[in-house]
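Recall the central idea of this unit: under ordinary conditions, the amino acid sequence of a chain determines the structure it adopts. In this exercise we apply that idea directly, starting from the sequence alone.
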Amino acid sequence: MLLIYFIWINFTIKILREIMDFFNYIHAVGTGAKGNRDLTFNEAKDMMKQILNRDAHNEQIAAFLLGWRLKPETTEEFKGAVSACDGYIKKTKIENSLELGYPFDGKSKNPYIFPLVAKVLKASNLNLVVVGDELQPAKGGITTKEICNNIGIEENLHYFDRADFFKELHQLTDIRMKLGLRTGFSTIEKLPNITESEYAITGVFHKPYVKKYVEIFAKRYKKFAIIQGNEGTPELFSKGRLWIENSNNIKEYIIDPQHYGINYKKSWEIITLEGSLNQLKNPSAEYLKLATLNAAIYLFVTDKAKSIDEAYEILNG
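Accordingly, the structure predicted from this sequence is:
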């Protein structure tokens, strides 16, 4: 019994040593290449709690976020920060759901497609989960919040506003917008798992981020997917790769819309909210086919079809 007590005391002391004054966290990431060091999981968790509780001044938070980005962040730090966030998020469990991880800086050149995907999936017993908030740095695009607040959505599409379920992070919007740069928050905020979904999918621009996202998020889901989506979203608009992590194995798939007879042309021009909403309300035939392909991808990710081809055939049946 005495041995257990001493082990507990030593462990507690170790944890307490890792919980520091916030200035020390700034020092850890803002000293320069020779002086910087990575935070441990527990340090990152404490850092995030101090930020969310506003125990640090706004200037300190901005300084840390900038230094953290330049250091740069590690997956262990990200996991510690995500663990801290879990203690603040108000959960609403939704069965048979797929969480879609969108960037909070919006889409600037192409419309969203998730409202149409939800419509295609109405009879498939699959709920789509989307979260949103006010615009965050740095793209200046149209947000999921703007879309969901300005268009009727299907019953199987569940939108959650961060101001309601995670007000502590929502309230950091002003600091982030004044900083005007992407920060570590841009990575960890995509998938809050508010609905305790078994499945999730998010988007990436570049393949090196696949390993990072898997290390941060995969253990939080039964199956975790990453796609080379349009503007970093979980929406496929052109030929790209899909990675699915399952039981510590990552499998890669190449998906080409032209294989399904889809010839949608991506836009390279800036799109307005009005233009985005108009394409959702009056979709072209090609855009509807693209929505069906994305729906097929989601059915495959959630184990409701053996392949994307099979899912696509079912949805077109």
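The beta strands are 97-101, 127-132, 157-161, 199-203, 223-227, 240-246, 249-255.
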